[in-house]
Amino acid sequence: MNTTIMLFLVQDGITNGAIYALLGLALVLVFAVTRVILIPQGEFVTYGALTYASLASGQMPGTAKLALAMGIVACGFDLFAARKTLHGRLILRSVLANVVLPAIVLALTINLAAQKPPVAVCIALSLVIVAMIGLYLYRIAFQPLAHTSVLVLLIASVGTHLALQGLGLLFFGAEGQRGPAVLSGAFTAGSLRFTGQSLTVYGITIAFIVGLWLFFGLTLYGKALRATAVNRLGARLAGIRTTLSGQIAFLLASVIGALSGIMIVPITTLYYDSGFLIGLKGFVAAIIGGLVSYPLTAVAALFVGIVEAFSSFYASNYKEVIVFMLLIPVLLLRSLAAPAVEEEKD
Amino acid sequence: MSALLSVTDAHVAYGKVEAVRSVGLDVGENEIVTIVGANGAGKTTLLSAIMGILPLKGRVAFAGQDLARLDIEDRVAMGLGLVPEHRELFVTMNVEDNLELGAFRIERSRAKASIERIYTLFPRLKERRKQLAGTLSGGEQQMLAMGRALMGEPKLLMLDEPSLGLAPIIVADIFRIVTELRASGVSVLLVEQNAQAALKIADQAYVMELGEFVLSGKASDIAANERVAASYLGFQHEGASV
């Protein structure tokens, strides 16, 4: 192997690793705050990517309708949960957030889709649609189970992944799609060629990581999220609703997932079920980070990306096998290093 | 005038085991009420149930409102605060962040003023403001837990074993601060095994044994009671724990 190929593989690995880093961070965030191992993270990626690609090609994405349907169910859940203390403001707030908002977005999508809107509008709409799906998914599938064990939450997570994947097939069909590049053009530095798209990936990943760091370090809501992750009872005693923290975590995870998808879909053809595998690589990084450490997860994600790039060069048939095999020594080391911990009680 | 906190015929159970039976208690405004009793008598269980952490059968009213359907967070918003036995601090966050989060539901401008008030009350916390909560000593952690609860501007602060495992000099400090709280208009419901210290500062007292109140009245009368003196002020009552 010569240096040019090596540099090219490292560059490719870093581009993919940057996406895995975002997904890994979202997984760590959601797990720390809600104890949910977010398997449907991959569906957020697919939904974001394919909603964006559909809009850009002038098609109406089914995800906008799904957001409204889920919003109506979430509203029903809200009202049922508060049935004994219902008052006007609560009903109005729930209807506005869960029904009126997705209805407006659906109307906008129907209107704009036919006109092949510009890239920025497609991105914004896709993010809003997937963010709403993430938020309602938490309300419907995870909030009612918030006090159950990690295992029950994991089962719910698998269930929602399967359901969303099936719906993905219904909305987008079995054919793969590609979307337009967010930033076209390219430049060459030495033997390396940087496309506008790969620069977008680096830029957005760095911006997001810095943004998350500022959010967690400086804002009250960011600190509340960290507090919930550190000590759920302590957070509740300080008046921080764990459901609010869960909503913020899912909102961030779904936006990160959708954004990752939008960044990948101009580079790779994505299918309705491609997100699962991409999400799993973020999961490998998150596991290396012990599902708690953000910096370790980000570094591990870059490592996963580079290992993947090199293994696809040397043994492309075994690419996935090699990446997932990284988990075995990590889990072995962690199991030897850490004592068995009983599940946290709420 | 009706009591600030009023508990009537409360039962709390862990599965089929009833840990608190038929308990009634009142805490008035500007009042320190203490519940004394041996380890395992059900004191912590009762506080947890009043806060909404455990389900309670019976009636709990705070500031005239029934708390039955309210979550922990709603109770905090109403002005009920709990400093639990294990403190439940955000150990990987610094002192200032812990305090700031205590005022999560309070207006930002008021929270800023509150934090200065807490630093006046606990000067040690000001010195340690950038230190991680998990690295503080036991006494400082207790002060931080109290400070965080006070940041939420409670009308009634419930303290669960604030003196547990602390050096006598710090215990004295904490009890002094509890009396200062009463002077500043915060009522206190104090659960303590250190009955002597608790009865000294309290207005009213309840003695709890095996999940029931066996005695109640003015703290000074309870302190003078022979049975209490024998069981709690002199030496621990054998077999009292469940």
Compact overview of the structure:
The complex is a heterodimer of chains A (346) and B (242). Chain A has 346 residues and is mainly alpha-helical.
Record field, number of beta strands of chain A: 2
**What's the β-strand tally of chain B?**
10
How many individual helices of chain A? 14
Q: What fraction strand of chain A?
A: under 5%
Order of helices and strands of chain B: EEEHEEHEHHHHEHEHEEHH
How far apart the termini of chain B lie comes to 37 Å
Distance between the termini of chain A: 54 Å
Whole-number average pLDDT of chain A? Answer: 91
Q: What is the percent of helical residues of chain A?
A: over 70%
Q: What profile does the largest beta sheet of chain B have?
A: 6 strands, mixed
Q: Which class best fits the helix and strand makeup of chain A?
A: mainly alpha
The greatest inter-chain interface is formed by:
A-B, 18 and 29 residues
Give the neighbour order of strands across the main sheet of chain B: 6-7-8-3-9-10
SSE diagram, text form:
The complex is a heterodimer of chains A (346) and B (242).
Chain A: H1 3-34, H2 41-56, H3 63-81, H4 88-113, H5 119-142, H6 150-172, E1 186-189, E2 192-195, H7 196-218, H8 220-230, H9 232-237, H10 242-264, H11 274-288, H12 294-314, H13 319-325, H14 327-337
Chain B: E1 5-14, E2 17-27, E3 32-37, H1 43-51, E4 57-62, E5 65-66, H2 72-78, E6 80-83, H3 95-102, H4 108-121, H5 123-127, H6 138-151, E7 156-160, H7 168-183, E8 187-192, H8 195-201, E9 204-209, E10 212-218, H9 219-224, H10 226-234
Parallel strand pairs in B: 3-8, 3-9, 6-7, 7-8
Antiparallel strand pairs in B: 1-2, 1-4, 4-5, 9-10
